[in-house]
Structure formats: C-alpha cells, structure tokens
C-alpha cells in the first residue's frame, strides 16, 4: 500500500508543495486477512462482476468513524467503482487482520478496507458503513484532494472539478540501502530497494545507472528470498512490492539512479519537474542517490 504523497520531498525541492514531507517510506507491504468485498456484496444481493445495479448504483462508498476538519467535522470517506468492488480478481478486502494478527488501532481496528493497487487514500480505516451509490463519493479527499494536475496549475487557478479522483498509482521504484549524499568507502556497494506498480501490473525490470542515464544495468528482482521474481507469473504476487538488488563499484563520487518498467511498458519519468504538482502527489521520477567517497561503515 502506497500513499499518493510518497517521495513528496523531492517535489518540494523544485517548488513548494502542500502536504506531509514524505521521503521514500510512505509505502508498506503486509499480508492482510479478511473477507473479500465481492463476496460480502453478493450476500446482500449484488452479483459478482456487476457494473451497475437495477437502480443505477455504480459506486461503493466507504465511510469511516474518523472525523476530520476537511469534512467540517464529518467522517472521512472515499469510493471505488462497483465494477472493481464486485470483481473477485481485484481482491478488495474488508480486513480485520494484518500479518496474522488482529488489526491494531493505527492500522484501522476493528475493520478497514484494503484496495490493492490503488493510492492509500481509498483504503479507508476504522470502517463505519458501506454505501452503494449512483455517483462517486463527494467526500473532500475524493473531490478536492488527491488529483493529478499539471505543473502549470497553482492555488490561484486550480479547478478541482476538471480532474477525476486519482485511483491507480504509476510505476515506482526507490533505493533504500543507501541514503542521498551518503559517505561510502571505495569498492563494492550493494544497491537495494523496492519497485511497485498500480493496477496489479508486474515489474518487468529495474535498471541502475551510474552515469546520468547514458548506460544501464539490470538489477535482480525478488519477492521471496532466494527465488527469482517473474513479472505476472503464477508464482508472483501482483499486489506486492518487488525488491531489487545490484552491486556497483564506486571509485569516485557517484550519482546512482534507479528506474523501473512495469509489465505494460510504463517507465518512470526522468525528471521530477515534468510531474511536479501543487499537492506533491505521485512523484515517480527516477530515484537518485548521491554517494560520496569517505569514511563509512558500509
């Protein structure tokens, strides 16, 4: 599960943005336990793979017990399409367990929604009610937040109604084994990190460059220790992140770049400037880490 604001800090270095200053860690990987929403909806008379009910309902809204100032003291809420909610392959879950244990309070006890492959804002915690409705949720975080605007839009000319709520997240990768502007000793350095793409798309490859993107080497990919990952293979998990690793030889100050390519051939954009937006969401530009020679414990 990934927050739409993951890697927002890099956008704020280009121009100011509004939002929590996340680096590369606004993402997590867990084993969820619960009931499939498609099964629950079928129990109340909505068959699987339904796009619209006889009464014209096309969306499923999740309402939290959590109250927020953006809703003027009302509940946090979000929605997904009915077609996604009733699709067993979409794996939308009403979760009450995380990693084999009962959900704790921070993660949504006693019940939360998990919408895999979609920005985290749609996976509503502390679930109070589920509504099957005609139009998408009119909640603040659906209509006046988490939308993708071009760099030309600012807080003076923004028109929230001109964009649809963001759902799937684009292909993403980040280096996690070393930090930006880290001191390292000359020699071999292990470069490790994660890659993920929304909508259940697999990770076709992760490339590493040491010369600004002129040349690339492919990193190894795994989801389970010691087992090679194959994109969209029956042995892989389409909703989980993919871990990558490459060993590089550092003899001088070096900028290490990672970029991922998903199974639909979507590629991370080169520059953060091209995807900058006033809310700092969906920064999926090449991830860059500067390594300087010096004393290090690596």
UniProtKB/TrEMBL annotation:
<dbReference type="InterPro" id="IPR005066">
    <property type="entry name" value="MoCF_OxRdtse_dimer"/>
</dbReference>
<keyword id="KW-0560">Oxidoreductase</keyword>
<keyword id="KW-0500">Molybdenum</keyword>
<dbReference type="Pfam" id="PF03404">
    <property type="entry name" value="Mo-co_dimer"/>
</dbReference>
<dbReference type="InterPro" id="IPR000572">
    <property type="entry name" value="OxRdtase_Mopterin-bd_dom"/>
</dbReference>
<dbReference type="GO" id="GO:0008482">
    <property type="term" value="F:sulfite oxidase activity"/>
</dbReference>
<dbReference type="InterPro" id="IPR036374">
    <property type="entry name" value="OxRdtase_Mopterin-bd_sf"/>
</dbReference>
<feature type="domain" description="Moybdenum cofactor oxidoreductase dimerisation">
    <location>
        <begin position="165"/>
        <end position="291"/>
    </location>
</feature>
<dbReference type="InterPro" id="IPR008335">
    <property type="entry name" value="Mopterin_OxRdtase_euk"/>
</dbReference>
<keyword id="KW-0479">Metal-binding</keyword>
<comment type="pathway">
    <text>Energy metabolism; sulfur metabolism.</text>
</comment>
<feature type="domain" description="Oxidoreductase molybdopterin-binding">
    <location>
        <begin position="1"/>
        <end position="141"/>
    </location>
</feature>
<dbReference type="GO" id="GO:0030151">
    <property type="term" value="F:molybdenum ion binding"/>
</dbReference>
<dbReference type="InterPro" id="IPR014756">
    <property type="entry name" value="Ig_E-set"/>
</dbReference>
<dbReference type="Pfam" id="PF00174">
    <property type="entry name" value="Oxidored_molyb"/>
</dbReference>
<protein>
    <recommendedName>
        <fullName>Sulfite oxidase</fullName>
        <ecNumber>1.8.3.1</ecNumber>
    </recommendedName>
</protein>
<comment type="pathway">
    <text>Sulfur metabolism.</text>
</comment>
């Amino acid at each position: 599960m990934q927050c739409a604001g993951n890697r927002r800090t890099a956008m704020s270095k280009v121009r100011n943005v509004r939002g929590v200053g996340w680096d590369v860690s606004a993402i997590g990987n867990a084993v969820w336990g619960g009931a499939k929403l498609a099964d629950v909806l079928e129990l109340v008379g909505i068959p699987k793979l339904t796009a619209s009910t006889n009464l014209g309902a096309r969306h499923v809204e999740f309402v939290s017990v959590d109250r927020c100032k953006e809703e003027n003291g009302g509940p946090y809420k979000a929605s997904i399409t009915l077609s996604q909610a009733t699709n067993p392959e979409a794996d939308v879950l009403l979760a009450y367990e995380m990693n084999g244990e009962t959900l704790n309070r921070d993660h949504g006890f006693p019940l939360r929604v998990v919408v895999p492959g979609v920005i985290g804002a749609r996976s509503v915690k502390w679930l109070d009610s589920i509504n099957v409705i005609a139009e998408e949720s009119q909640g603040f975080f659906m209509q006046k937040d988490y939308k993708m605007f071009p760099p030309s839009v600012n807080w003076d000319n923004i028109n929230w109604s001109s964009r649809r709520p963001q759902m799937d997240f684009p292909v993403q990768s980040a280096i996690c084994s070393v930090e930006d502007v880290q001191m390292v000793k000359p020699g071999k350095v292990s470069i490790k990190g994660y890659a993920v793409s929304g909508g259940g798309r697999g990770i076709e490859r992760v490339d590493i460059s040491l010369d600004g993107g002129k040349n690339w080497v492919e990193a190894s990919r795994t989801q389970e220790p010691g087992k090679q990952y194959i994109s969209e293979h029956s042995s892989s998990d389409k909703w989980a992140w993919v871990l990558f690793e490459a060993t590089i030889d550092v003899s001088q100050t070096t900028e290490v770049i990672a970029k991922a390519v998903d199974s639909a051939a979507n590629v991370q954009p080169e520059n953060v400037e091209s995807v900058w937006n006033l809310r700092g969401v969906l920064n999926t530009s090449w991830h860059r880490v500067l390594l300087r020679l010096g004393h290090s414990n690596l």
